[in-house]
Design brief:
Strand content of chain A: 25-35%
Number of helices of chain A: 10
Oligomer: homodimer
Number of strands of chain A: 31
Shape of chain A: globular
Largest sheet of chain A: 6 strands, antiparallel
Largest interface: A-B, 41 and 41 residues
Structural class of chain A: alpha/beta
Strand order of the largest sheet of chain A: 24-25-26-31-28-29
Chain lengths: ~525, ~525
C-alpha cells in the first residue's frame, strides 16, 4: 500500500472537467476536497492526511466515481511538526511544539528569475526567519516595476484588438494590456502555479511558513479589480490547489483598506469563502494600511501594519487572538518613511512588539544598483537587523512557554475600598483622563517585560538608565543577565540571588535584563 | 533729576504698614503698583518704567501721600531689549527684536549654596539657553531632599509645642515641622527674596528669562497645601515684589494637575489674580503633568509637558498662542523614563518641536557622586545635548522671521469639485478614519519643515534615507546644505539651484536639509 507521511501530500490527476471532488476517510474522519484545473481537460485532487492510519479515498465527478483507493499514512518523521495553528495568544505546531513566528517580507520573490529565487532561499536558510509574507498576484510598485515572466491566469481573447493589426505571439502575459482581453480566472497558468508550489515546498523544507497574500492593491494589470465572481473563483482555486501544503497561511489581503471598491462586507465574504474551502483550517488573517480590520470569526490572528509595536498588548485585549505586527517599518534607506528605519530602530520596534506579547515581521529596503530590495524581490540580505533578530529569537527560546507580557491590572475591591495608592495626586490626576488616554499612559509607564514565576525578561527600550532595582518574579534562586540587544552580548550580573537585586546597567539604549530561575 | 534706564527699576522704601500704593505717571500713562513688605514696619514700592520721558510718582497710604517725586526715564542702552511678550506663535522683546526661547530647567537652583548658584550662572553663561524654569517654593523630590537654608516665608508660633520642651533657636526654617506653627504668608523672609531677586537680576545680565514657577506639588513643608487665601497672598506678594523685573515670566504651576485639592476654577482665579496684579503683562502660563490646562484668557502661551514634541503643530491650531514644550524628557541616566533619554533622543525631540512650530526646553538628569543633577540644582552641565541645541539655535537664527511650519491644508473647492488626489485609494482609505486619527496621520506624513518663500529647513528625524528630492519653496536661486544635527556639520550640497534639486544624504538619523535663497 502506498505510504504517505503524516502532513504530507497525496495527489491524483484525472482527465476530467468540471466539479470533481475527492473524499478521504480514515476512522471517524471524512474530508472532502475540491479538485483544481491543471491543464485543458485535466484536474488534480490534492490532499494532506493529518493523522496516521489507513485512508480510503474516492475521486468523484458528481456521484460518478472516477477512482478509488487507499494509502497508509505513517507517522511524521523527525522535524515534521505539521501545520501551525493559533493557541491562546501564541501558535503551536500540530505535534504540540511551540511555534514563535519570526517573519520577513519578500512580496514578489516568486516573480523573480530562478537564480534570484534560489538566492532568496539561501538567504532565508541562513536567517532566523520562519515565516515569509509573499503575494500570489504580481506586484507593481516602485523598485518592482519589471514585467513578470508569468501570471497566475491566462488572458481571454482581446475584445479591442483591431482587425488588420499584426498578430502578437509573445509569451502568455507578456503583451501590452491594450492588445489583450480580460483575465480568465478559469484558466490557471501552470508555469506560475508550479513555481509557487515549488517555492512553498522549498520554504517548508527550511521550516518556513508561507504567508500567502491573496489580494493586494499594487497592481497595473487588473488583478486588484477583478469582479466579485472572479475574486471568489481565485480564492477557490487557491484553496483547492494550496491548502494541502502544511506551511501555508492565508493573508486575505495586504492593505485591504487600499483596495478600491471593496467593502468590509465583501472582505467578510472572502474570509468566509477561504474558511469554507480550506478543510484544514489554515491560519487566516487580513492586513491593513490604516484601520485594522475588525475581528471576524474567520480571523485566526491579527496581521497588523503599525509602527507602534507596543500596541501589541492593547490589541491582544481587543482581539483576544495572537497579535502579529506584520509591518512595523523596514530597515533601509529609501525616501519613504516606512522604508528608511535604522537597523537599531527596527530591532527596537521588534523587541517592543515581542515583549508586549506580539510578534513582529522584518523587512529590508536598501537601495542598490541592481534595484533588488529584499522586501520586494528577495535576493541577498544586506542589513544589520537580521543578526539582532536572531539574538532575540535565541533569548526568547530560553523562556518558559507560559511567559506573559507584564500587565498591571486595576483590582476592584469587592468591599468597595479604595485600592492602595488610588488617592495619591498622581493616581487622581490620571483618573481625570479619558479611559483610552489613561490606558495608553499606564501602558507607557509599565515595565516592558515578559514574565512567569520562573523568568523576567525586561526590555528597557531607549531608556539609558544606569541602575535598575529588580524583583525576582517568584520564589527561588535566580540568575541575572544584562543583555545588549545591539551588540548581542550577555553579561552575568548575578550567579544567584533571591528576592530582589540592584543591577548596574550600561546606561545606553537597547538594554535588556533577563532573570531566570536556577533552583528552588 | 534721577535717571532710570528704560525697563530698569525704580525702588522706594517706606516706614509703613498696610495698604501702600505707588502711582506712576508719564504723559498719558498712569500705573498703580502695590508695595510689598520688606521688614517689620517697612515696605517697598518697585516699578519699571516702560517708556522714556519724565515720570511723576506718588507713594500713598490710602489717600495720604507719603512721598512724591519724579525721575527721567532714558532710552534703553545697547543690549537692553525690554521684556518679552507673545507675538503670533512666537515671541518678541519690547524693542521689536525677535526672541526665540531656548529654555532649560533648574527647579531648585536658588536653594543651593552660593558657590553652586555661581556655578549655575557660569554654566548658563556658556550655554545657548535664554530661559530657565525655576521654582519659587523649595522642592522636595528624589535627588533634592536636603533641607533648604531658607524659606520664602516665616512660620508662626507652633501650636503643638509642649511646655517644658527645650527651646530650639535654630535658623529660621531649619527646625523640624512638628515643633513649628503654620507658614505665615504675611511674613516674607528677606534672606530668601533677596537671593531670588539677585538671581533674577543675574539671569537678566546674561540675557536669560526667569520662568518663575509659583506653585508646585513636590513639597514636604506644606507650601503646596496652603489655604486659598494664603495662595492668593503669595501671588500678590510675588506680583508686587517681582513684576518690575523685565525678565520675569509667570508659570502658575509646575504640574498643576498633581496638586491636591485644587480645581480648574481655583487655577483660573489664581491666573486672574496674577494678571490683575501685574501691570506689565508678563508672560503667563501653567504646566501640566497629564492633561494640558484648557485655554484661558490669562494664558499668554502654552507651557506643556509631553514627550510628543511633534504635537506642537496641533497645539498651535488648538490654542492659537505660542506653544512651548517645557518638558519633553531630560537627557540623563536615572531610573525614571522622564530622566533617562539619550542626548540624541533629546536633541531629536527638540528639533521636532521647533520644526513643528513650537519651542522646547532642555533638562539634564545625570546621576553623580555629589547628587547634583542640573535639572534640580543647577551646577555644571555634563551632557552632550547642549552643544547640539546651540547648533540648532545657530541654524534657526539664520532663518527669516516669517518661516512657518509646513502644513498641508485640505482645500475646499467652492465649486464642490473633488480635490486632486481625493479619489485615490490612499486618500479614500484615510477619509474612513476618524478625524483625530486622520489628522495625526497626515501630520506624520508631512515633511517636517520650517519654511517661507526664502527658506526651507527640513528635519528628517530618524529617517535614514539616502536621497531626497526637494523643491525650492519660492522663486530665485537657492543654496542647499546638508546638516548633521548630532555632529553639527554643514555640508554644501548646491551653491545655487532653481526649482528642484536631487540631494544625496548620509542615510543616517539626525539629518536636516537647509535651502536658503541667495538671489532673485
Amino acid at each position: 500500500m502506498e505510504q504517505i507521511e503524516q502532513y504530507g501530500i497525496f495527489e491524483s490527476r484525472e482527465r476530467a472537467d468540471g466539479n470533481i471532488t475527492g473524499i478521504f476517510s480514515c476512522e471517524e474522519t471524512r474530508i472532502r476536497v475540491k479538485a483544481f484545473a491543471v491543464n485543458e481537460g485535466e484536474v488534480m485532487v490534492r490532499f494532506r492526511p493529518e493523522h496516521t492510519g489507513v485512508w480510503e479515498y474516492r475521486i468523484q465527478a458528481g456521484e460518478r466515481i472516477l477512482r478509488a483507493g487507499s494509502f497508509l499514512c505513517i507517522q511524521a518523521g523527525e522535524g515534521n511538526h505539521g501545520p501551525v495553528s493559533a493557541a491562546g495568544f501564541g501558535f503551536r505546531y500540530a505535534d504540540g511544539t511551540e511555534y514563535r513566528p519570526f517573519g520577513t517580507t519578500c512580496y514578489a520573490w516568486i516573480y523573480q528569475p530562478e537564480e534570484i529565487r534560489r538566492q532568496t532561499l539561501e538567504s532565508l536558510a541562513g536567517s532566523p526567519f520562519n515565516k515569509v509574507r509573499m503575494c500570489v498576484f504580481p506586484k507593481d510598485m516602485i523598485y518592482n516595476e519589471e514585467e513578470p515572466a508569468y501570471f497566475p491566469y491566462a488572458r481571454g481573447i482581446a475584445e479591442d484588438v483591431q482587425p488588420g493589426n499584426p498578430s502578437h505571439n509573445q509569451e502568455e502575459g507578456c503583451n501590452h494590456r491594450k492588445k489583450q482581453g480580460k483575465w480568465n480566472i478559469g484558466a490557471p497558468n501552470q508555469t506560475f502555479w508550479e513555481i509557487l508550489e515549488t517555492s512553498i515546498l522549498e520554504l517548508d523544507r527550511l521550516g518556513i511558513e508561507a504567508d500567502l497574500i491573496l489580494f493586494h492593491p499594487y497592481d497595473r494589470w487588473g488583478f486588484s479589480q477583478l469582479s466579485k465572481e472572479d475574486n471568489l473563483k481565485h480564492l477557490e482555486y487557491c484553496a483547492a490547489r494550496l491548502a494541502a501544503y502544511k506551511n501555508v497561511w492565508w493573508s486575505l489581503a495586504n492593505e485591504y483598506d487600499l483596495m478600491p471598491g471593496r467593502t468590509d462586507q465583501d472582505w467578510d465574504i472572502y474570509g468566509q469563502k477561504i474558511k469554507e474551502r480550506d478543510p484544514y483550517g489554515h491560519l487566516l488573517s487580513i492586513h491593513n494600511c490604516f484601520q485594522p480590520y475588525e475581528k471576524a470569526d474567520w480571523m485566526t490572528h491579527c496581521s497588523l501594519q503599525t509602527a507602534d509595536t507596543k500596541s501589541a498588548m492593547t490589541m491582544r485585549l481587543q482581539y483576544n487572538i495572537p497579535v502579529m505586527i506584520d509591518e512595523c517599518g523596514y530597515e533601509g534607506d529609501i525616501p519613504f518613511d516606512w522604508g528608511n528605519l535604522s537597523a537599531f530602530e527596527l530591532v527596537h520596534r521588534i523587541w517592543m512588539g515581542y515583549i508586549r506579547g506580539g510578534y513582529c515581521s522584518h523587512g529590508e529596503t536598501y537601495e542598490s544598483e541592481d534595484n533588488r530590495l529584499w522586501w520586494s524581490k528577495g535576493g541577498k540580505l544586506k542589513g544589520e537587523s537580521v543578526a539582532r533578530i536572531a539574538f532575540l529569537k535565541e533569548i526568547l527560546q530560553e523562556l518558559p512557554q507560559n511567559a506573559e507580557p507584564f500587565c498591571w491590572k486595576i483590582e476592584t475591591d469587592p468591599n468597595g475600598k479604595k485600592q492602595e495608592g488610588a488617592d495619591t495626586p498622581f493616581a487622581m490626576a490620571m483618573m481625570k483622563l479619558d479611559e483610552e488616554e489613561r490606558n495608553r499612559r499606564i501602558l507607557d509607564m509599565l515595565p516592558m517585560a515578559l514574565c512567569s514565576e520562573e523568568c523576567w525578561l525586561q526590555y528597557l527600550g531607549r531608556s539609558c538608565q544606569r541602575e535598575l532595582h529588580v524583583n525576582a518574579p517568584g520564589k527561588g534562586i535566580f540568575r541575572a543577565e544584562v543583555l545588549d540587544v545591539w551588540n548581542m552580548s550577555r553579561i552575568c550580573a548575578s550567579e544567584g540571588f533571591e528576592g530582589s537585586l540592584h543591577m548596574n546597567l550600561p546606561a545606553k539604549e537597547g538594554t535588556a535584563v533577563l532573570l531566570k530561575k536556577i533552583s528552588m
